[in-house]
Amino acid sequence: MVLPTFDQSVRCEILGLPGTESLRDLLELESREFEAVLGQPMEFAPPSQRRRNVWQVNVQPGISASSLHAETENLRLISRVRRPADFAETLQLLHSLAHSPTSSAQCSECRTYAEVAARISSEIANTYPYFTLRGLSWDRICSRYSDLGSLRGGAFWHMAQRWVAELGDAHTAVRAPGSVSHPPYRAEMTLAGAALLSVPDDSRAFQAGVRVGWLMDVESPHLWLATTGASPQQHAEVAARRFMTMGSAPRTFSARDGRGRTVEWQEPPPPAMPSVSRHGPTLRVARFEKSTPALLCAGLRSLSDEATVVLDLRGNTGGNLVAADACRRMLIREPGEYGSVRYSNARGSLSAHYPIWLNPKATTSPAHLRILVDSMTYSAAEDFLQPLADLDNVSVEGGPTGGGSGRPRTIPLMGGYTLRVSTAITYTTQGAPIELKGLNAATLPRRTHEHSTGSADTLQE
Description:
With 461 residues, the protein is an alpha/beta fold. It folds into three domains: 97 residues, Double Stranded RNA Binding Domain (2-Layer Sandwich), CATH 3.30.160; 82 residues, Pdz3 Domain; 162 residues, Alpha-Beta Complex (2-enoyl-CoA Hydratase, Chain A, domain 1), CATH 3.90.226. Helix content is 25%, strand content 23%. It is built from 13 helices and 22 strands. The longest helix has 15 residues. The protein is globular. InterPro entries: ClpP/crotonase-like_dom_sf, Tail-specific_protease. This is Tail specific protease domain-containing protein.
């Protein structure tokens, strides 16, 4: 272990640092994640002359890449960045530094495919939190890919994606470079193609004559299934979603019905749509982003006369955790512990359970809230749902959800490819992990107001 053995709270000196304002809410919300690695709580402060138990930012415009350095004798971490906003890159390096044999880690790409393979192996071995939960042996998985470093180009990246996909976690994956958007369809990947589950009436595919049940033409569907990691309840749909991924340019798709008719259409990049929309007494929350709390608050107020409000989270794959936290606090009624989180310590094991303590945020809370979910309700959407799902004025319909509350970190690989690795397990108030199993009405306990502050000390993995 190269990190300093801090002997009191670590003072992270970013207050007042230009370009870091947007990080503050997330860092405060997830401060326990850093405590799990640092061994001490982290607090936020302006730059000072303090030299011990401190994380400082050193701006050096001429450096080639951001880096994080450990001074073990001085009990100090130093982020060296080209501009203050790049401090976020060094946050991603903390876990790498914790298991590094050297006193520094750099946010830079690997130079060879062999180095990429070694980086993937090490980062997952030391950070990934679900081996026991999922009954996996990383050594056994790695043994099947021992010759990966000898491959090149597309063959290497396909095999690397297949390797990491064996973990069965949609958050943990080797990702190709480029911007990503998704057309408005839902489908499940089969060995015959992507079977369409949803084709909106106003979509290009519908206008071309395509309907639910048609098969989208897919080259090598088995490869999409093999290179996609996801929990069983969502695996086929996540594979189809990956296949349908678009960049900034239009893309041509084709689909066929059961009678041999084939239709081709050109799909434009999807337009920007609000994350919350109202349809009668239903509020559809498509994703969590910065604007979502204000939109949800306005939607709830517009439905204040309704005895029952429906919140539709189906297909919501997550997004901004800070936004999800603000939204869930609108709907809880009392302060208390709402489950717990365990974080990776970046050295191959997990922290103790940290309770999730939430305070309500004044808003218009409906007398009865129906929440609709499915297997693509995932990630930050599950963090939003978890504290609400067992309240006595809430009913959950559908599920199980996707089973992934992983707080992934991103590590550069080579040629724009990156590795994302989960770092946490979230638990319900009864100690059940959300990871893998997800949430649904059958598995959620009921919480009444007088039991809203139960202890997390008895939680078991």
